[in-house]
Amino acid sequence: MTTNKRPLLRAENISKSFPGVKALSHVDLDLYPGEVHILAGENGAGKSTLIKCILGAYQPDEGKLFLEDSEIRLRTPKEGIEHGIAAVYQELTMIPWLDGAQNIFFGREPKIAGTTIINRKKMSCQAKSLLDELGCQEIDLTLPVKKLGIAEQQMIEIAKAISMNPKVIIFDEPTASLSDREVDRLFAQIEILKKKGLAIVYISHRMKELHAVGDRITVLRDGKKIGTYPERELSDDELVSLMIGGNIEEVYKKTSVPGRETALEIRELSDRKGKVHECSLQVRKGEIVGLAGLVGAGRTELSRLIFGIDKSSCGQVLLHGEDVTGKSPEYLVDHGLGLLPEDRKGLGLALRAPISWNVVASGLRQVFPHFFMNEKKNDSVAAEYIRMLEVATPDVQRNVGQLSGGNQQKVVVAKWLCANTDVILFDEPTRGIDVGAKAEIYVLMNKMASEGKAILMISSELSEIMGMSDKIYVMREGRIVGSLERENFSEEEIGRMMLLSGEGEGA
Amino acid sequence: MKKNTMLHDLVKGRYFFSVMSLFVLIGISCLMSPSFLSLSNFITILRQASILLILSMGLTAVVLTGNIDLSVGSSAALCGCVCAQMLVAGFPVILCMGASLLIGLTVGFINGLLVGILKLPSFIATYGMNMVASGLAMIVMNGGVIYGLPTNFTTLGVGYLGPLPVPVILAAILVVCMMILLQKTVFGRNVYMIGYNANAADYSGVNSLRTLLGAYLLCGMTGAIGGIVMTARLNAADFGMTEAYGLQIVAAVVVGGTSLLGGEGGVLGTVIGAIILTIIVNIMNIMGVNSNWQGMVHGIVILFVVWLDVFARRVGAGRALRKQRESVKRA
């Protein structure tokens, strides 16, 4: 077994902070040759940060990396590759119109001796033998990769990683876009790599896969290492509870009681891109409804559909009983619907614009119904909301981009309060903001609910969604696969609905 | 808190470098020729600047949304040509001007649709429209030149109201209207918001299509007015009449400190930009610079002013970033 070998790569005491967030604190990780090491944890637990530190994309604030017992310092991913650390990402990083061989050797093409001319013959020869090694001879290397299937592209991506002769390969959610059959092939290849004595890091959210491929599992939560366990010692339920943490913290103090009237209802809503299938849900006045699920389950797409950014293919959206299917965001905003998007900086705010402008962005037509406006009234209206939400800023003239994440998020909330919104979709409202600001956002949401506003909250943090919601719908692969009332909330149940695919669901 | 924002913008705010460039230019011009600093030359400069200013007025709104319109010049020529053709055909002046305005608005509307609905990059879309409009102007003129227009029409270009030329007064009226529209209305605020972050505007329920159409309509309208005034001033029209302006219309906006990225700048900057560009030509004429050299000198000065602006912003942005980092560290 692995115990008598020396670790190939060892990360010791790694810490990494970003402004306002401690993403990793004192995390250890050791990888043995011929071992598949699973990294498990919720979104935001620090998995990506950790692998980026190992790859050289980030420099840890503290801690050391050892490769075969000698310390290494990686300043760029290129230095990581030179040391034999390669990665296969969830998002494909290929150039679609180049063929397989060109992609595998992109930037490292074999040259005709003494020239800078690419030796195409040698290149396709080498590419072919790489794919043979992986057992996928049938992939046509002469086609532009965009004409290949996703799984075949993934194989080429793996071939690219192997062509760098790595000692360590990191797979970051490689199966997100693969079907079950393709996943099996991938595992067969991982098995081959294992036999060759590589150390493999594998990140995935699919419980089934972790057991199929993993040897050991390291669980991260909130940037801390919870522990490393041999795969066969952990059951699904144990793993889920390790990932989400046992107890729900005190920050979620529910003060609101849901009313009876339905504020928002969607009926069998589907989108045109195949990401949302026949979703139905209801949110009552004064109610906070959670929408749980993994990243990529279609929750953000559903919120965009409700808010009219994307068009639906079938189904209905009812706002206060009125059918608003297919209406523009402008119409919906004027009728009391708001959306706090996941991407605060790209979609929620105009960072280069003053706070005062952002606060009134949605409510402008209501604050100034007669077409003409004036800056002074704008400033005083904005100042009022800034005071109400306790945004830390000396004035409302400065650009929103200068505020911290939590304060920026409060400005987005202010924007919807200013527009007199009574149904708000919160998409990951506390992403990337620190613990203190999180608690303030929760207080705000509870206050809004107790004032009779209806809230639909998307969140990938189970503890958050369980603490805040009166009711939780769970989404998986574009469908709403179940719902739970507050009294029936259980981490295991929600985790199971989120993670397990349909056929494996027992009682 | 309370400050006169217009004055603040001029001396400390976003127009600072444009204003400084203007003063430096005036200073140099005074040193080079004493006749530069005379009332009559001052009025000449204003008159020369007025048409450029009118042409670039609506464009300012388009650039503020983060887009561009390269068709203003040829659209203005088309409007001038149609106006002249109708005048010599004996239609009443009001009708001729109305028809020209309608054409300008149509060009703007089509540009707005191309960019807003078909989502074409505005650079290419309006470049295409530029060629369409100048082609149409050629057809309208059939290769000829029209001159000798009715005097009640040419007054618009050559007349005076008191000491001030009519085009200057027209330009001033347009500047005031545009400033109100962009600074004091919901529409204007949305123009800026789209420029700052079009996605965030969409996610805030701003109707970006309508706002974009509005900006392009304004651009088409001021282009048409510019074309009409120019026809009146020249007392003639041919399809290439606005060629001399060409990209100067865009340069006036950018030299005035309006960011091509959108969101930053405004009409006041364009006024300064148009005057800067005009003074460069004016002083070269006074000095008797060989006309072969004028284009090149003009270009160099434009490059310098834009570089200064970009440079200053970069320094300012760097300083702001450092300050932010320090405050994060402290906290």
From the structure above, extract its key features.
heterodimer, A: 507 residues, Rossmann fold, 3 domains, globular, disordered C terminus, B: 331 residues, two-stranded antiparallel ribbon, 4 strands
Report on this model:
The complex is a heterodimer of chains A (about 500) and B (about 325). With about 500 residues, chain A is of the alpha/beta class. Chain A folds into 3 domains: about 1-245, Rossmann fold (3-Layer(aba) Sandwich); about 250-335 and about 420-500, 3-Layer(aba) Sandwich (Rossmann fold), CATH 3.40.50; about 350-420, no CATH class. Helix content of chain A is about 35%, strand content about 25%. Chain A contains 18 helices and 20 strands. In chain A, the strands form 4 sheets. Chain A has a 6-stranded mixed sheet with strand order 6-7-8-3-9-10, sandwiched between helices. In chain A, helix 6 (about 180-195) links the parallel strand 7 and strand 8 (about 200-205). In chain A, helix 8 (about 235-245) crosses helix 18 and helix 14 packs across helix 15. Chain A is globular, with a radius of gyration of 25 Å. The two termini of chain A are about 35 Å apart. In chain B, the strands form 2 sheets. In chain B, strands 1-4 form a two-stranded antiparallel sheet. Chain B has a two-stranded antiparallel ribbon with strand order 2-3. In chain B, helix 3 (about 40-65) packs across helix 9 (about 185-195). Chain B is built from 14 helices and 4 strands. The mean pLDDT of chain B is about 90. Chain B has a domain at about 50-245. Chain B has helices spanning about 5-10, 15-30, 40-65, 70-90, 95-115, 120-140, 150-160, 165-185, 185-195, 200-205, 210-235, 250-255, 265-285, 290-330, and strands at about 145, 160, 165, 235. Chain B is globular. Chain B starts with a helix and ends with a helix. Chain B is mainly α and about 325 residues long. Classes of the chains: A alpha/beta (about 500), B mainly alpha (about 325). Chains A and B meet through helix 10 and helix 11 of A and helix 9, helix 10 and helix 14 of B.
